Amino acid sequence: MMEKNKTLIIFTDSGDTIIDEASQVYDAQEPGIVSRAEFIENAGEILQQLHEEGYTIALVADGEEASFQNVYRKNGLRSCFDAWVVSETVGQQKPEAIMFQTAMEQLGLEEKDKKRIVMIGNNLKKDIAGANRFGITSIWLDWSPRYYRTIEEEDWRPDYTVHHPSELPALLEELNRKLEDKAPGR
């Protein structure tokens, strides 16, 4: 098992955050189930890198369990996730707090740990508003034009914005360093 030595905890969406939704191929035998999909340029490698660097990573995504299993297992990246929260299993979708709370519970986190969590997502209305309402840091990955691109409500305003997954490692390292600098005994 990979040693988790980073203070920052990453919650991440999947579609248009790691996986390019335009590349999804649906299973002919199981309607609504994605059988395969392509990663956004470098996103798979970045996910693996963050895992290897010791970040705790939770998938917090809306969709069908089988779709996510198909995509991440086939690409050998299922093991990058320390928690796995999918709306089909939870029975609710983001921005509902239960999605984020379930990830915290799976990771054994408490209320005081919220300051250590970031949520990375592409959807202002679901990922960003959900994170903001839940009280965790929000990072908007705005590379795809498929969803809202205008902040229509105040809770849609992200704490940080990146334009491509390649910008994430530096931002996450900066946020982790700030948390570690604030840690007791430093």
Question: What's this entry about, in short?
Answer:
The protein has helices at 43-52, 65-74, 87-90, 97-106, 124-134, 168-182; strands spanning 9-12, 25-26, 34-36, 56-61, 83-86, 117-121, 137-141, 160-162.
What can you tell me about this protein's structure?
The protein is an alpha/beta fold and 186 residues long. It has one domain (9-182): Rossmann fold (3-Layer(aba) Sandwich). The protein is 32% helix and 17% strand. The chain has six helices and eight strands; from the N terminus they run βββαβαβααβαββα. The chain has helices spanning 43-52, 65-74, 87-90, 97-106, 124-134, 168-182, and strands at 9-12, 25-26, 34-36, 56-61, 83-86, 117-121, 137-141, 160-162. The strands form two sheets. The chain has a six-stranded parallel beta sheet with strand order 5-4-1-6-7-8. A two-stranded antiparallel ribbon has the order 2-3. Strand 6, helix 5 (124-134) and strand 7 form a beta-alpha-beta unit. The two termini are 28 Å apart. The mean pLDDT is 94.
Quick tags:
single chain; 186 residues; six-stranded parallel beta sheet; two-stranded antiparallel sheet; 8 strands; globular
